[in-house]
From TrEMBL:
MF (Gene Ontology): dihydrofolate synthase activity; tetrahydrofolylpolyglutamate synthase activity
Pfam annotation, one family: Mur_ligase_C
Pathway this chain belongs to: Cofactor biosynthesis; tetrahydrofolate biosynthesis; 7,8-dihydrofolate from 2-amino-4-hydroxy-6-hydroxymethyl-7,8-dihydropteridine diphosphate and 4-aminobenzoate: step 2/2; Cofactor biosynthesis; tetrahydrofolylpolyglutamate biosynthesis
Protein name per UniProt: Dihydrofolate synthase/folylpolyglutamate synthase
PROSITE patterns in UniProt: FOLYLPOLYGLU_SYNT_2
Native organism taxonomy: Bacteria, Pseudomonadati, Pseudomonadota, Alphaproteobacteria, Hyphomicrobiales
Listed EC numbers: 6.3.2.12, 6.3.2.17
Organism of origin: Xanthobacter agilis
Family: Belongs to the folylpolyglutamate synthase family.
PANTHER family documented for this protein: DIHYDROFOLATE SYNTHETASE-RELATED, FOLYLPOLYGLUTAMATE SYNTHASE-RELATED
Catalytic activity: 10-formyltetrahydrofolyl-(gamma-L-Glu)(n) + L-glutamate + ATP = 10-formyltetrahydrofolyl-(gamma-L-Glu)(n+1) + ADP + phosphate + H(+); (6S)-5,6,7,8-tetrahydrofolyl-(gamma-L-Glu)(n) + L-glutamate + ATP = (6S)-5,6,7,8-tetrahydrofolyl-(gamma-L-Glu)(n+1) + ADP + phosphate + H(+); (6R)-5,10-methylenetetrahydrofolyl-(gamma-L-Glu)(n) + L-glutamate + ATP = (6R)-5,10-methylenetetrahydrofolyl-(gamma-L-Glu)(n+1) + ADP + phosphate + H(+); 7,8-dihydropteroate + L-glutamate + ATP = 7,8-dihydrofolate + ADP + phosphate + H(+)
Record function comment: Functions in two distinct reactions of the de novo folate biosynthetic pathway. Catalyzes the addition of a glutamate residue to dihydropteroate (7,8-dihydropteroate or H2Pte) to form dihydrofolate (7,8-dihydrofolate monoglutamate or H2Pte-Glu). Also catalyzes successive additions of L-glutamate to tetrahydrofolate or 10-formyltetrahydrofolate or 5,10-methylenetetrahydrofolate, leading to folylpolyglutamate derivatives.
């Protein structure tokens, strides 16, 4: 059946929807529950759901699960946020071989319908666009839906799903303290809010205070726990990923995604699929195929890369909190051990982030930090504030008006061997870099 002619393009509808609530973030389930009822409860007609919460590693863990499931021939829907370049990146519909980002036509139709059902009532942008995603997922068959929490868990719009097949909690650390609390325990309580009665919970490596909260919540709800270090284990050995649990040992290739933290994320993905009895011989193919843009991504070609000094490496990462900075610095140390290069960071961050916490792991590792604004984002931190935070840590830093200018300026400071350039600090900055560089996100 042909879709009706569209009245608006997705970008126009999205702009309208962003004006339906005065706050960008306002955690609550009441508005979402009202809209789900008006739409006939699409959240009750979804494929089997794997619900993923946590502070860091959610997207990479989902990327590993998707790649392994698709390699086994399954149709996989995926919901992630935020997007990097186009909103369509948030909604991936299952298709034979490899899922596809939602088309403008399907997206605009779903947005039109949820806008009509909402009838102008107050609702946040994330809530109403999540509703559109649920409409699409409910109308297109798939074997699995990998569903990423937007913020927190307990009051996140995705938490209207009544009974996922399993819940996954990646490492919990300090972030979004204005909304989730100022301690790891408080934040863990919000993340653990996705746990449902008797639904298995697969848990990545956690600080003791976070794990205690998760264990108490699971115990109260009689939800079986599968905790790293207790019920499953993963480590790198001789360039391979070695996973083990009570069902046996699995020897897999090292992921293409760079950094020791990706061993952890891949292991969590394997544990989640084994808890669902969805793992199999395609795991090896999937581990090698997994991709996740702006997570220590090497940019080999493109308009921005062409501006870099000859022989320089250009890397991109969207990490933006203290734990993300620590993981990123650890990965850069690994690159340094394999091939030493002077490290230059180009950093842009939001004002809501702990800039000192993010930069601290790089002290003694980075030759120079160049602070830039996050383009077109009023919440961006002034580059001068990034420079001040870097200086307090003993990191030499200066300001550039944008990423292109920062790269151009490297010609005035020749390095031998050529520099390793890391652009980091914000997913919003990372998206603008991918767009300016001409790197597709598919």
């Amino acid at each position: 059946m042909a879709l009706p002619q569209l009245k608006s393009e997705p970008v126009e509808i999205l702009a309208r929807l962003s004006a339906l609530h005065p706050k960008k973030i306002d955690l609550s389930l009441a508005r979402m529950e009202r809209l789900m009822a008006a739409l006939g409860h699409p959240e009750r007609r979804l494929p089997p759901v794997v619900h993923v919460a946590g502070t860091n590693g959610k997207g990479s863990t989902i990327a590993f699960m998707r790649a392994m499931l698709e390699a086994s021939g399954r149709l996989v829907h995926v919901y992630t946020s935020p997007h990097l370049v186009r909103f369509n990146e948030r909604i991936r519909l299952g298709a034979p071989g490899r899922g596809e980002l939602v088309s403008d036509t399907l997206l605009a139709d779903a947005l039109d319908r949820v806008e009509a059902a909402n009838d102008g009532a107050p609702i946040t942008f994330f809530e109403i666009t999540t509703a559109a995603a649920f409409v699409l997922f409910s109308e297109h068959p798939a074997d699995v839906l990998l569903l990423e929490v937007g913020l927190g868990g307990r009051l996140d719009a995705t938490n209207v799903v009544p009974s996922p097949r399993t819940s996954v909690i990646t490492p919990v650390s300090i972030d979004h303290v204005d909304f989730l609390g100022a301690t790891v325990a408080a934040i863990a309580a919000e993340k653990a809010g996705i746990i449902k009665p008797r639904v298995p919970v697969v848990v990545g490596e956690q600080q003791a205070e976070a794990l205690a909260v998760i264990e108490r919540t699971a115990g109260r709800l009689l939800a079986p726990l599968f905790v790293r270090g207790e019920h499953w284990h993963v480590h790198e050995e001789a360039g391979r990923l070695v996973y083990s649990d009570d069902d046996g040992l699995v020897d897999l290739p090292r992921p293409r995604l760079v950094g020791p933290h990706q061993i952890d994320n891949a292991g969590l993905a394997v544990a989640a699929l084994r808890s669902l009895r969805l793992s199999g011989p395609a795991q090896e193919e999937g581990i090698l195929a997994a991709e996740w843009p702006a997570r220590l991504q090497r940019l080999a070609t493109g308009a921005l890369v062409a501006r870099a000094p000859g022989g320089a490496e250009v890397w991109l990462d969207g990490g933006h909190n203290a734990a993300g900075g620590a993981a990123l610095a650890h990965a850069l140390c690994g690159l340094e051990e394999r091939y030493s290069r002077p490290l230059v960071m180009i950093v842009g961050m939001l004002g809501t982030k702990d800039v000192s916490g993010f930069l601290a792991p790089f002290a003694g590792l980075v030759r120079e930090a160049i602070a830039v604004p996050v383009p077109d984002n009023p919440a961006g931190l002034r580059p001068e504030e990034v420079v001040a935070a870097a200086g307090a840590l003993g990191i030499s830093a200066r300001v550039a008006p944008d990423v292109a200018s920062a790269i151009d300026g490297l010609a005035a400071m020749p390095m031998v061997p050529p520099a390793r350039v890391l652009i980091c600090g914000s997913l919003y900055l990372a998206g603008s870099v991918l767009e300016a560089n001409g790197t597709p996100v598919t």
